DNA sequence: GTATGTGAAGTTATTCACAGCG
DNA sequence: CGCTGTGAATAACTTCACATAC
């Protein structure tokens, strides 16, 4: 249980994605009676090797006990600390379509450190509707909400044609990270992080693998 | 325009993900008057280098003209051929929650080669509801639908606790590829492909990047 | 015996840099 | 001269293998 030596840079992106998977697995484990977990067991949930799990964790410190393994509760806190999700991050959603509605009602975000504090659209017919704890507001309110809650993260669910100009507006309002569901790439300043989520891409990858009959 | 020399194996996964991004970009390009595209231009949409784009394509053949670039329409067909999405793939969705409803109404799948042919749940209150072109059916119908439409791909949107047993049932029914939205890892035979989509993971990655102030 | 942490080795993916073609 | 295609070089990531600790 040493403190994180690596503060940030040179952390492989694949490692971060795997840490999320480990955390999901650990979250499920706490509902069982199992208190300890081995790197081999964690490896199962990403289809990787035990050495890879240990490497991923070693990027941030020493959290296990030799001959024993890792304490489930401890490891959860360690990974949350790495992600910065031991506190809640306020998040806005822009584009009040069906996906937005599904996201607003999804319980998983709040449980894992992300509170949706506002949802926005331009369509007058959508304004005022309430999903989960959030009421759809006009996009012109977004700057005020971002400022009031010190929001740094946004989820973009607008149509592809509106994605770029909406992103620019969000960046101007202070947003530093965007989860982009639009099927358009975003041109943003280098200090703004974009994470693209392409639902079709997952199916395309699967159909490629089936097409090329790679067992 | 040579035929693909590499049939399948040893294609890097990251390359496949990028091909999806190129395809999204090209799909948007056809609505403009631009008929040709360079590797440098394509590189923009994934934040990569021009050499990387050319490498990704070179894995499958030679599709450009030196000194000129790539024909937009040709390249779209090339990538669709790689993915096997010049024909429609039938897909079933299991778990009729909010996310399922959003997916059923999403137009993008069909446009890109994936037809949702059925949606299933166990909850009697959900049965019979219609979203998009699809009516929610009882899960006991899933085997018949899979057989009738020769379905090989499934989208799993059930709760984490039901994910494993549902996956096993789907595999038994002939499913070979699963897009898994449940926050649980799936244990399936090696010849079944699973693509996990973790919505929280994207936000976790972003908050990590902000926390570690990596510009 | 069991399981972590980590240098060293190995593998995979990306970039360089330039020949080849339009 | 511009841009692709690709061997060679580099960088990034993963696995090996074993010292270390329980």
Walk me through what this model shows:
The structure is a homodimer of 215-residue chains. Chain A has 215 residues and is α/β, with parallel strands linked by helices. The first copy, chain A, has helices spanning 13-29, 39-44, 50-58, 72-83, 98-105, 108-111, 142-149, 160-172, 199-211; strands spanning 36-37, 70-71, 89-94, 114-121, 130-131, 134-138, 153-156, 177-180, 193-196. Chain A folds into two domains: 8-82, Winged helix-like DNA-binding domain superfamily/Winged helix DNA-binding domain (Arc Repressor Mutant, subunit A); 89-200, NAD(P)-binding Rossmann-like Domain (Rossmann fold). Helix content of chain A is 42%, strand content 17%. In chain A, the strands form two sheets. The first copy, chain A, has a seven-stranded mixed beta sheet. A two-stranded antiparallel ribbon of chain A has the order 1-2. In chain A, α1 (13-29) crosses α4 (72-83). The relative contact order of chain A is 0.09. The model of chain A is unreliable at 1-6 (pLDDT under 50). Chains A and B meet through α1, α5, β8, β9 and α9 of A and α1, α5, β8, β9 and α9 of B. Chain B binds a DNA duplex (22 and 22 nucleotides) through α3.
